[in-house]
Amino acid sequence: MTTPRAVYTALLGDYEELSEQSVARTSDVPFICLTDRDDLVSDTWTIVKVELPFPFDLVRSQRQFKILGHPALHGFEETLYIDNSVQLDASPDDILDDWLDGADFSLHRHSFRKRVIDEFDEIVRLNYDDAGRVNEQLLHYAEAYPDVLLEQPYWNGMLARRRTPAVEATMRIWFDHVLRYSRRDQLSANVAFSLGSVEPRVVGDDNNVSIWHRWPVDVKRRAAQSVVTGRRTGPLLAEVARLEREVLLERKRADDLIAGKEAADERVRAAELELAEADARAARAEQRFTQVTTSFSWRASKPIRVIGGRVRRLRAGGSTD
Q: Which parts of the chain sit beneath pLDDT 50?
């Protein structure tokens, strides 16, 4: 029996135009677009009208559908979510067969960001979310999940999943963080997977192009985007740099303590060796003294030593008595 599968996206508001998917024309897998718009039509997508979970927050509404799905998807055991700016170049069956082979959840690593903490800086620099909320999230993560901040972030433009309780629980954790902190889901994905029971399979090494997709394609976005200038965010980067300096300083202090202990241990070992050698010399001298004083010649020469002592005293003008 064929596993029920679907590809889906969520396009809310009039932020951009819907990207048609040519592979849908030759696939039996349904392509479902969740939208709040009444005017949206498509040759390749099945349009499903949805109510906004958060009427005054289109971004978090879209993230809810992206991360948690929608009742319209409940009949499918395997799904492939794609951002609207992703163009598929392979059939969804081929993608899901590959990505979910031995895994219940698969996605890309971020191919041009090395650490999660770097993604925080980019979000603030590009003004993609409120800096105060992003910095609060960073400070909380630095306290609770410091190792996760040093991981390579995930790229969430394509998400393949199998419907299991573990996947759904992990997605709940992820979306809870999107609600509590930044709406930019890439900031919380690594933490969510570290807390959840699903080990995601990482596929692909290039976010822009692969055998499965191209990204980004032109969707005629109507909202202005910040221009990347290469300028780093001062306060956030300064805080990160300060923390890194503190770590380096503590490591140096620890190294100095270890080196000092090793030097002290070496001095103790040298002193112990010198003391042992002195004890050995004293023992040899004591042994020699005992041998001499107990010998026959020493006892026989005692009268001579006595007379010699009196002569030395007479020469010195002393008494012989």
A: 224-231
Q: Evaluate whether 126 touches 120 at the Cβ level (below 8 Å).
A: no
Residue type, 214: R
The separation between the first and the last C-alpha atoms of the chain, rounded to the nearest angstrom, is 129
Token pair, residue 186, equals: 């890439």
What pLDDT sits at residue 318?
Answer: 57
**Selection from 63, 5, 12, 7 nearest residue 34 by Cα:** 12
SS (H, E, C) 3-20: CCEEEEEEECCCCCCCCC
- Do 60 and 129 touch, CB atoms closer than 8 A? no
pLDDT of residue 224: 47
239, with CB counted inside 10 A (0-12, 13-18, 19+), is: middle
d(CA 98, CA 55): 37
Radius of gyration of the chain (CA): 40
What single-letter amino acid sits at 33? Answer: C
CA-to-CA dists, residue 24 to 35, 78, 177, 236, angstroms:
18, 16, 33, 44
Q: Which residues, listed in sequence order, are joined to residue 214 by a DSSP beta bridge?
A: 87, 209
| CB contact set of 173 (below 8 Å; sequence gap of 6+) | 192, 195, 196
C-alpha to C-alpha distance for 24 and 90, rounded to whole angstroms: 10
pLDDT of residue 227: 36
Find the Cα–Cα–Cα–Cα dihedral 45, 48, 51, 54, rounded to 10°. Answer: -20
Give the HSE-up count for residue 110: Cα atoms under 13 Å, Cβ half-sphere.
19
Give yes or no for a contact between 18 and 3, defined as CB atoms under 8 angstroms apart.
no
Cα separation, 45 vs 4, whole angstroms: 17
Long-range Cβ contact pairs of 250-257 (< 8 A, separation 24 or more): none
Is 46 within 8 Å of 120 (Cβ atoms)?
A: no
Are 50 and 34 within 8 A, CB to CB?
yes
Q: What is the pLDDT of residues 122-142, one digit of tens each?
A: 999 889 999 999 999 999 999
